[in-house]
Amino acid sequence: MKKILLLVLVLLCALTRGQAKPFPKGTKRVLFLGNSITYAGTYVAVVEAYLLTHYPKQHYEFINVGLPSETVSGLSEPNHADGRFPRPDLHERLSRVLAQTKPDVVFACYGMNDGISMPLAEERFRPYREGMKWLHTELEKAGAKRIIFLTPPVHDHPKLGTQGYNRTLDAYSTWLLAQRDSLRWEVADIHFPMTRYLEEKRQTDSTFKLARDGVHPGELGHWLMAKPVLLYLGENVESAQSVAEALADRPQGEAIFTLVARRQNVMKNAWLRATGHKRPEMAPGVPMAEARQTYDEIEGQIRALLKQRKTP
């Protein structure tokens, strides 16, 4: 009898493993907070497309409200944007974002702007730490079922490479990762894997770049951001070297990624318009009702592709 029960348990585990869910039961909305790199959104679209194609029965809405130039520290250099405007502060808009999006899962990626491109100093480091603790508390109050912080991406100084401002981000990332043990936070590390990748590539190609300006990564850089996130969620992408490879075994994977990215480009600006912010020089975004129509139309196209078999 014990052997039969053991066999049944093994079979049940095998069945449920194939039906595993990346987020807590009842999750409907997945929110991404961050600065211009999150606003660019490629890594967000990669994560969404991957989970869509691997968990087609789930219906998660991915919401990107990344805002260029934003900090969680509230700091801004005196002549930011040539004096046109100070850096926006997440404190100003978070309550509106949470009230309207009502997220179940939240990813937050801050740090790149919080050190103000300067060497590590306590007068800048302390507001970052306090801002991240404040953010975690506010997300808990809002009822988020899961909060996952992301360490900041790599910074590539034009002369010093990863030994310039990236050293500041090393310290910010190390502190954030330490909160896994001290505060039981969930933290996915994208900073150190990106740094290692860049440094290894530089050993054979001194001109190699992940970001032309040293800050904003291109397509490969965004994949290097998405990959640790997916690994943290338990997905098997260790060997994948690109988005295309990660989606290669999924029917219509590339087409679905294209649709997801197109939809994200519409929705992120609509959400910024709906929730409000103080940063000028942003795309106006369409009213949410209009954006919702686009969302639903693209959702229909995605669902149709998910039903198709992989073409030979």
TrEMBL record:
Pfam families: Lipase_GDSL_2. SUPFAM superfamilies: SGNH hydrolase. Residues 1-20 form the signal peptide. Keywords: Signal. The keyword Signal applies. The keyword Signal applies. Residues 32-223 form the SGNH hydrolase-type esterase domain. One of its GO terms (molecular function) is phosphatidylcholine lysophospholipase activity. Transmembrane segments: none annotated. PANTHER family: SGNH HYDROLASE-TYPE ESTERASE DOMAIN-CONTAINING PROTEIN, THIOESTERASE 1/PROTEASE 1/LYSOPHOSPHOLIPASE L1. This is Lipolytic protein G-D-S-L family. The lineage of its organism: Bacteria, Pseudomonadati, Bacteroidota, Cytophagia, Cytophagales.
